[in-house]
Amino acid sequence: MTSLDTFHSRATLDVDGRPYEIFRLDAVDGLDRLPYALKVLAENLLRTEDGANVTADHVRALASWDPAAEPDTEIQFTPARVIMQDFTGVPCIVDLATMREAVAELGGDPEVINPLAPAEMVIDHSVQIDSFGLPSSLEHNKEREYERNAERYQFLRWGQGALANFRVVPPGTGIVHQVNIEHLARTVFTRQTAGADGAPVTQAYPDTCVGTDSHTTMVNGLGVLGWGVGGIEAEAAMLGQPVSMLIPRVVGFKLSGAIPAGATATDVVLTITQMLRAHGVVGKIVEFYGEGVAAVPLANRATIGNMSPEFGSTAAIFPIDDVTLDYLRLTGRSEENIRLVEEYTKAQGLWHDPSRQAVYSEYLELDLSTVVPSIAGPKRPQDRIELSDSKAAFEKTLPTYAAEPHKPTPVALADGTQVTLDHGHVAIASITSCTNTSNPSVMVAAGLLARNAVAKGLRSKPWVKTSTAPGSQVVTDYYEKAGLWPALNELGFNLVGYGCATCIGNSGPLPAEVSAAVNDADLTVVSVLSGNRNFEGRINPDVKMNYLASPPLVIAYALAGTMDFDFATEPLGQDGEGRDVFLADIWPDPTEVQAVIDATIDREMYTRDYADVFAGDARWQGLDTPEGETFTWDEDSTYVRKAPFFDGLTMELTPVEDVTGARVLALLGDSVTTDHISPAGAIKADSPAGRYLAARGVARKDFNSYGSRRGNHEVMIRGTFANIRLRNQLLDGVEGGYTRNFLTGQTESIFDASQAYQAAGVPLVVLGGKEYGSGSSRDWAAKGTALLGVKAVIAESFERIHRSNLIGMGVAPLQFPVGQSAASLGLDGTETFSITGLTALNDGVTPRTVTVTARRDDGEQVTFEATVRIDTPGEADYFRNGGILQYVLRGLARGEQR
């Protein structure tokens, strides 16, 4: 990559006698007034200017940025690195392995398929909570994890050996986002490159990243600009393709005041989530500023940054300051790196100076002293409920899930305990996910609350499945040092694994007798988890209502045993003297929480736990690992199969065609998330995926989860749109992955219907409502849609990541006219659809609208102009090529490489 340096910004920064090449922002007038995030993007453009992908006009566009204007200028952002977790990362490596073969078939060198930017994967999404509440739970769950995932892990070890610039953090280490902030993030990146005169130099520039998980934004708390992208975009970034984006609007969010006693960082982030969702920040960057920033601990910044996808924003970033440096020092970064971070950011105007306020597109403010204890649910993270209103809110919502308010159901537990289950009973209480387990303030608070509860004689209710799945081994270290594990274990919150467990749907099965009672009596039971996602059908197939809460509140709900509970007026139990014990009696004092943190957490914990983080344990090291520049596929594997996306690919483009005679595969409402679309969670025996596995001799107990089988497209296509809570409005009163097959008039699984349509040569469309595709950055939500034969999705609005992923798979994202919807246009999904105007793309023109004609069976037509949501020239190139990976592959085969 050649830098043209039009603005003569190339300079040398001396840090303690060591020279670094940098590209100075003050060389361009106008950049100094920009928000922090846009300054990072400006440096990226200065450093990568090549006259083709990145031009001087792009830099000028940032320098003259109008904060009030709607985004209309496309730039090319080149992230410093790519971060992955294994659910979304395995398909990336499958695609790279397949691309190596495809390049060879096109006459190229397979070894051109290598990550050009550092790519790091943390295996954290595969641990399931099969065992809980026992000292042996950690080891048992780890053993089962390796039994289930040996094929995947062998494949990843092959990738680590065969692919340059690719490193894997083995299972049992922690959650990707927590490992990222505690160890992988550089904050200021360095690399060896050629200087202006061709001599080798060390270049320094801001650490930036994209990740295959939407919560990549957690690293924003460290001042690192990064966000989640689909796996297909991440693969392209690894292969040197810049991320195409419009210069975004930036929302300035001022924090003031201090969190009051009784409230936690989780309550803060749920409050911010509600505020920003209501304000509307989709496609925007949120940036925190003002005097109050210095009072926000790094862990709280990371907790807030983590929830950016729940706001809907691209990123939610804090600038770098002394708090950042203190955290880098605590987590074991070298003094040389810390000095570079300080000197570089000060030299570039990236150091936080509260006396100088950047210009922002919009402004919001939160006085932290107004935050109150909260939960969110029962199905969206932005639906915050003040804890004091939680019982009333539950009672108000229950009728939408259950026909009657109470349904007492006697159950005999496995140990003989007789209990009565009812609607609202807490079936799962889990301290889990990156959002909170990275934050010592809430984790220590949970441990102290457990200690206080045990001292009062309280215990978790026997029907609650309890668990603690920390985001890194450091949590275990400070729990042990503070002596908090015994009380947690006494309440059943034993260590079950290090990874993204309950929050991703790996909660494991409920105890058999509880599950049977729930299903037989159709009970509406709930989960309470310290995660960031609580979408329908995500946590556990037996659980209909899911609530997000801070770790101490997770324990409180385990003690209460039901969501139908008022903590202010109802006791959790009685102490040894028979006196009522209320939540206020056991809630830890914030000063004690801080005292425990100060006394227990130190730098040595981080340096020890991350000393050899890529080595793994004996299980990992003992895996039989294939070798070779290309992977030898096992045709009998049900975990890893060669991807079909490049079958028959030629160097010539296949012309874009209009859509004629399409049928509706699914008619969907508002807030359909990628959890509804993408395969996730357990694989049911009677599902198309279950039948596929059974036909290949896989026992039911070995089905594992959809996430673990993301490397097998045959499983994933069968699980697309198969969420048990999906409501396809083509059918009345039916939930799950079903549709009406208009070829036969019968109700069938979406997969079976799609196969019939494709065999008959009938293209498909999906109709959606507002916020279509919100949720995690799941590549299979788009890959599965494409493989089902869907040519276009017509929705009222799209979430950012899923829209770009659809384009990346050659599916057209189209938007109803403003203010219109399927319902307002009188469409019920029984029509036959035609879309004209897409062929303009063959002439290098991206149409702003296309004409959609829906013909009813009686011959009547509904015609409207749909907006084409292919927003940038780069996206148009991807679509013309049939997808982003096909675009990149053709370029690499021609010898084009950035």
UniProtKB/TrEMBL annotation:
Pathway: Carbohydrate metabolism; tricarboxylic acid cycle; isocitrate from oxaloacetate: step 2/2. Keywords: 4Fe-4S, Iron, Iron-sulfur, Lyase, Metal-binding, RNA-binding, Tricarboxylic acid cycle. Its cofactor is [4Fe-4S] cluster. Gene3D superfamilies: 6.10.190.10, Aconitase, domain 3, Aconitase, domain 4. Residues 71-561 form the Aconitase/3-isopropylmalate dehydratase large subunit alpha/beta/alpha domain. Its EC number is 4.2.1.3. It catalyses: citrate = D-threo-isocitrate. One of its GO terms (molecular function) is metal ion binding. This is Aconitate hydratase. It comes from Actinomyces glycerinitolerans.
